[in-house]
Design goal:
The protein is of the alpha/beta class. It is built from 14 helices and eight strands. The protein binds inosinic acid and zinc ion.
Length: 347
Amino acid sequence: MDKEVDVFYRELPKVELHAHLNGSVSFQTIEKLIRRKPQLNIEHNMTAIGKGQRRTLDECFQVFKVIHQLVDSEEDILMVATDVIKEFAADGVKYLELRSTPREETTTGLSKRKYIETVIQAIQQCKKEGVDIDVRFLVAIDRRNGSQVAMETVQLAEEFLVSSDGLVIGIDLSGDPTVGHGRDLIPALQRAKNSGLKLSLHLSEVLSQYDETNLLLDIPPDRIGHGTFLHPEMGGSENLVDKVVQKKIPLELCLTSNVKGQTVQCFDEHHFKYWYKMGHPVVICTDDKGVFATDLSQEYKIAATTFGLDREAIWKLSKQAIDYIFAPDSVKQQLKQRWRELQPEFK
Ligand code: IMP
Ligand code: ZN
């Protein structure tokens, strides 16, 4: 591996907008969790998908279940969130939107409210320690849990939108895309939007979700997660593409995640190419850096080598991501200033 090239990606200031907390847990943190809970008999190969390995989407969702067993108390969440934030900062991420599904665990006394409070505590703790990263939180709705839980999640997020001093800023819709139908979640998502919460929705992550995607695009979301099967070349439709283009909805694209999860055959065939060529807003993200054994520097490098992007184009891509963050304009201005200060000479 060319060390000098790697340094460029590592030092590149980056914005991470699509990171699930429990999917982002590193090998080292998993090690600590396994030591805390030896009785679970969990091994590393059950929590991550290594180099060259691939899994079906269904198998990926089994991995999350294993991690959830390891992360089931306030103490675990605090450790996991703090570690994940510091790891992103060490990878050169200057602004991070972390997302996670609040869970309650009767055995440890964890409530959904406490779950969110603990993530906020981790963010504040890192800030106090001077970790060089601005972190915000998106409360996630797991589509598997249905409309009522979705509505309760939005209500909880609304409270934190008011009380968290700008840390809780939006809602994520995620979970197994083959379970449930997005139409049932529209009232909750619409309510979230009306209360000022930003919306990032996993859309068209699998084939044949035309009706659902078409309905959810009408809300509309502020950003789209994956959007793998939106365009006709992937079995989507012109109509969906037109809506996304007209509304200028940015796409969060996660190359390794899609290839390892087998929704995309190989990097060359990733839909990054389609949208980037069109000049549509795209943001490179990790999705689950722990589960898919990657990091954001690596993802930028993969994009560069696969699609032939030079350093200047990569710089532009990382800087452009600032425009699509959910934090207010003042934060965008601060980040742009940071990028100006850090910009290298391009020969
Ligand atoms: P958590 O919300 O912090 O517990 O992170 C893990 C959860 O994120 C999983 O249980 C899924 O609901 C969601 N998730 C992670 N990756 C994906 C993905 O690629 N598609 C859909 N949902 C995902
Ligand atoms: Zn995701």
